[in-house]
């Protein structure tokens, strides 16, 4: 992308939106071709979807920075970085889905893949929004297809239950989010996020008079976005939805939906609200509230994960804990804060999507999601065991894998912020909780590795790989290793994000 080329008219705006427009149309093409071909091919819709995502990625590389339609569409480094994450997550989720589309989803493959693409389009529009209404529309376009995907196994009670739970809680969280947004609009008189920050900041001399309204708005926004991130106490849906949803959908939820929530959080709290705006206004309002939720996330996620016997529920609680680590970086409002969060999501993308791909492959082969079923796999499926172990160790944060570098950057940014401001020294405690709970997480991740490598029994299963799932596993392993051993290019790209927020 060329940061020197502004978007000045409708034609240039549409060209800048070309990746989103193309992917939306491609989703319709995938659904149509699947219907016209009378659903005879088991793989056609899947491969078409993966090709469409590759083309979208190529188009993205030719997009320009700048704004269009006011601030409703705003291409900046943050939008570009997270669009790469969204496209990659969708690509890996679709590549992991060929097993279920062969056995369980026979009559609606096009719709299944099309919904993943539609959700990806919503995420891409969300990341390129600097206006409250368009941001909310992008968030809903992200979430509504996921409601359907979570319940896509319509003949299985767990899948239907997960879809209903996700829909009900998602609708409630959207209502809270809109309620909080309405307060901000009432205070500022605008839906433009940057203008909103300036208008609300103008009230700083009479903040006591508007403080209650801002506090209520903050609580509503944290509750609404906290649902997307699965931050406690808004996390109860995650284990049940992850367990009942198709495994590739759970993977897409854990990475794509979480990254979209992070973008929405950054745009609402770091761009629209005056807290953290300048060193003289260091936050102890929403900062401490979010810090408390992050601490609860790290503690609850890691402690409860230890007791899980179902690997999808274990990864769900792991995802809750990972959200806590990410929010530690979000509170580090310096030039390294947002860069560390973006890099964390990049490393988390490969580790978590790879781990869920391995789970999906094993579930397709055996029909089991029990951790005990993984015993002895290192002897019958060595590549599977090695790759799955790499993903899990990266999630722990073991060097030299990407997860270690991601956690190091997040904690380092938080410590720098705490040492720079006396009123922010409570962040030291948050980092301490993060380090301690990371040690706890080693127990339940290593338990899966122990089952594969140190069980006395040989596994009765031998993993076989179709080209798509093999590609996903290889991409995951290479991504985790590259993020840990050669992080500089990604960090350099992620470092540009802070400039968009004035840090």
Strand order of the largest sheet: 1-2
Question: In this structure, how is the largest beta sheet organized?
Answer: 2 strands, antiparallel
Measured as a percent range, the helix fraction is over 70%
Global geometry? globular
Q: Structural class, judged by helices and strands?
A: mainly alpha
The average pLDDT score comes to: 86
Low-confidence stretches: 1-5, 276-284
Please report the distance between the alpha carbons of the first and last residues: 21 Å
- Please tell me how large the radius of gyration is: 22 Å
Number of helices: 22
Tell me the total number of β-strands: 2
* Beta content: under 5%
Give the ordered list of helices and strands: HHHEEHHHHHHHHHHHHHHHHHHH
Topology:
Elements: H1 10-16, H2 18-36, H3 44-61, E1 66-68, E2 73-75, H4 77-95, H5 98-103, H6 109-127, H7 132-150, H8 157-188, H9 193-201, H10 207-229, H11 237-244, H12 247-272, H13 286-306, H14 311-330, H15 337-366, H16 377-380, H17 382-396, H18 402-420, H19 426-453, H20 467-485, H21 488-495, H22 497-501
Antiparallel strand pairs: 1-2
Helix pairs in contact: 2-3, 2-6, 3-4, 3-6, 4-6, 4-12, 4-15, 4-20, 6-7, 6-12, 7-8, 7-12, 8-9, 8-10, 8-11, 9-12, 10-12, 11-12, 11-14, 12-14, 12-15, 13-14, 13-19, 14-15, 14-18, 14-19, 15-17, 15-18, 15-20, 15-21, 17-19, 17-20, 18-19, 18-20
